[in-house]
Amino acid sequence: MRSKITLAATLIATAFGLPAVSAQAQSMVAPMVTSGMYQPTYSAWDGFYVGAQGSLIGMKSHEIAPGILVGEQLLGDIGGSAGVFAGYRYQLSDWFVLGVDAEVNNVATQFEFNGAQNYGALKWDAAVRATLGYPVAPNVLAYGTVGYSWGHFDLSPSRGGTSTTFTAGGWQLGLGVDMMVTQNLMARLNATWTHYGVNTVPGGGTSEPSNSVVRAGLAWKF
Question: Quick check: helix, strand or coil at residue 170?
Answer without folding.
Answer: strand
